[in-house]
Each structure stands twice: as C-alpha cells, then as structure tokens.
Fold:
Amino acid sequence: MHLNSYLFFTGQCKEAFEFYAKVLGGKIEMMMPHRGSPAEQHTPPEWQDKILHARLVIGDNVLMASDAPPGRQHKIGGFAVNIGLNDAKEGERIFRALEESGTVIMPYGETFWATRYGMLTDRFGITWMVNVEKPVERAASH
Structure:
C-alpha cells in the first residue's frame, strides 16, 4: 500500500510543482493539461492549459496534484504535507525556500520532539511541516 498526498490548486499547479521539484530535488513524471484529455470538453476554454494531473517523485515518495476548475474548487485546509529529514541544515534550506512569499505558522527551531521543526503555508496555499525528529529513546525491556 502507498499513501500519497494529492494537492488541489486553483490554477498554479504547474508553477508549484516546478518549484517543489527544484526545492525538494524531485522529478516531475507527469504534467497533463486538460487540453487533449477526455476532460477537455467539460473544461472552460481559459482552463484548457491548466493541469488535470501532475505527479512528482521525490526519492521513494510521490506527490500528486491538479488544478481544480472553477466551481470544483475547495478551500485547502485540515492537513499539512510533512517533510521528515535527518539533516537540520537541509531542513532549514527547504523551510526557507518554501516560506518565500508564504506565511510562517511556527518558526523553524528546536522543539521537545525535534532538533528542528517549522510549519508554514507556502505562496500556493499549501501547508508544510519540516520536521527533523530527535532520536527516539526506547525503554529497556524487563
């Protein structure tokens, strides 16, 4: 089983995924517009070049998305995409890139569970958590 996040944008999917690929070191494997697809006939003319389906592969992880046409858009909320890392400097680099023109919810810093953690909403409206967890201490078995 694989669990993948699927993000919905309001016209910025291509720009967002190109940005995420650069920041996260991923590869865009699919970027399909509405034009030329079975959805084309149900999509307004000004929306034809917006993205019907996108797939970004980052290591063993997959992030998918599309642009939801007007009337099918929903407010983003109730979730965040978590980036789990082992390297605090890499986490800071990613956090700083994602926060550009975004809104910081919790500054990148140390917490009781993480050597570094930060939460933000990026300029595309997606909420991210950058998390470098502290090693888990296991209780000794008796």
